[in-house]
Design brief:
The protein is built from 9 helices and no strands. The protein is an all-alpha fold.
C-alpha cells in the first residue's frame, strides 16, 4: 500500500488538535464558563470577547442585564476557535482524501464520517449554549469530541499501517476481550460525562466512603432522566443532593469495574502474549489505568482542583485512544507496510 504522506501528516495534526479541543472543553466546563458567551458562534454578538466601553454599551443594549466576565468568555471563545480550526482541517482532510482516492487508494469512509460528525458537533456546541447547558446535550457534546479523537486516531493508524507484527494467535486469543474492554471504557466515559454535566463530581466528598458510608442511600428515580424543563438554566446543576450523589456513586462503581476488568485482562495478556507489541500495550495500559484511578481519587480528596480535574479528563481521552489502538492492532488484517 502506498501512503499519502501529506494526508497522513494532516490527520496526525487533526488528532492532536482534537485532544486539545477535548481538554479545552473540559477546562471550559470545569471553569463554569459554558455560558461565558450566551450566544453562538460569537460572543455577545462579537467575534471576540467585548471589553471596550462602546462594545459593553452595545452588549447592554442587546443583552439586557448581562455581565461580561472576560476570563470565562475567553475560555469559551478560545475553545470555539480551536474547535472551528479542527472542523476546517477535517474538511481539508475530506477534500484531500477524495482528490487522492485513486492514486493512493485512500479510504473515504472515515473522512466522510468525520465530516458528518464535526458538523453534528457544531450543532451540539450551539445547542449547549442555546439550551443553557442541558445535561444530555452537554454529555453528547463531550462524547462527540471524544468520538472525533478516537476516529482520527483510528485514521492515523489506518494510514500508517501499524501493528502488522501482532501474531495471529494473539489476535484470536485477545481481540474479543479487548472489544468488551473498549465498550466498558466507553460506558464509564458516558457516566463521567453525565456526572460532570450534572455538577455531581463532589456529591461524595470523601473516599472510599460516601458521606461516611460505603454504600449510601441512593435515588435512581431522577438520576438518569434527560431533563424535562427546556429553557431552564442548568449551570451549577438543578438536581437535589441525593440524586447527584447517586450519579457520582454510580460513576465510582463504574470506575472500579473498569479498573478490575482491565487489571485481570492485562495480567492475562502479560502471561499469554506472544507479540512484543501486545506486551508494550500491556505495560502502557497498566500505567494509564493506575494514573486515571489516582487522578479520580485526588479529585475527590482535594475537592476538584482545576488542574487535576482537567488532567482526569485528558487522561480518560488518552486511555480511550490507547484502547482503540489495541483493538485496531488485534482486529486489523495483516498487509504490507507502505
Amino acid at each position: 500500500m502506498i501512503r499519502d504522506n501529506f494526508l497522513y501528516r494532516l490527520v496526525c495534526v487533526a488528532a492532536c488538535l482534537a485532544l486539545v479541543v477535548v481538554t479545552l472543553g473540559a477546562f471550559t466546563r470545569l471553569k463554569d464558563a459554558g455560558l461565558g458567551c450566551p450566544d453562538w458562534p460569537g460572543c455577545y454578538g462579537h467575534l471576540t470577547v467585548p471589553i471596550s466601553t462602546p462594545s459593553l454599551v452595545e452588549v447592554q443594549q442587546h443583552f439586557s442585564g448581562a455581565i461580561v466576565e472576560p476570563v470565562k468568555a475567553w475560555a469559551e471563545m478560545i475553545h470555539r476557535y480551536v474547535a472551528g480550526t479542527l472542523g476546517l482541517l477535517i474538511f481539508v482532510i475530506l477534500a484531500r482524501s477524495w482528490w487522492t482516492r485513486h492514486r493512493y487508494q485512500t479510504p473515504l469512509a472515515l473522512p466522510v464520517l468525520l465530516t458528518i460528525l464535526v458538523i453534528f458537533q457544531a450543532c451540539l456546541g450551539r445547542w449547549t449554549v442555546t439550551l443553557k447547558l442541558l445535561p444530555p446535550i452537554v454529555m453528547l457534546h463531550l462524547l462527540g469530541g471524544l468520538t472525533l479523537l478516537a476516529l482520527l486516531s483510528l485514521f492515523v493508524l489506518r494510514l500508517g499501517c501499524f501493528f502488522n507484527a501482532v501474531k495471529e494467535a494473539d489476535k484470536q486469543r485477545f481481540k474479543w476481550w479487548a472489544l468488551l474492554g473498549l465498550l466498558i471504557v466507553i460506558g464509564q466515559i458516558i457516566l463521567g460525562g453525565w456526572t460532570s454535566a450534572n455538577y455531581a463530581s463532589l456529591s461524595c466528598p470523601n473516599f472510599p466512603y460516601c458521606h461516611n458510608t460505603l454504600v449510601p442511600t441512593l435515588n435512581f428515580t431522577h438520576a438518569f432522566t434527560l431533563g424535562d424543563k427546556m429553557g431552564q438554566n442548568y449551570q451549577g446543576g438543578v438536581l437535589d443532593q441525593m440524586t447527584r450523589m447517586t450519579i457520582q456513586f454510580t460513576h465510582r462503581v463504574g470506575a472500579a469495574c473498569v479498573f478490575f476488568y482491565w487489571l485481570i485482562f492485562l495480567l492475562y495478556m502479560l502471561a499469554k502474549a506472544e507479540s512484543r507489541t501486545i506486551l508494550r500495550f500491556t505495560i502502557l495500559l497498566f500505567f494509564m489505568l493506575v494514573l486515571q484511578m489516582l487522578l479520580g481519587v485526588m479529585n475527590v480528596i482535594l475537592l476538584l482542583p482545576l488542574h487535576i480535574a482537567v488532567s482526569h479528563n485528558g487522561s480518560a481521552a488518552l486511555l480511550l485512544v490507547v484502547v482503540v489502538a489495541l483493538n485496531y492492532a488485534l482486529f486489523v488484517k495483516a498487509r504490507d507496510m507502505p
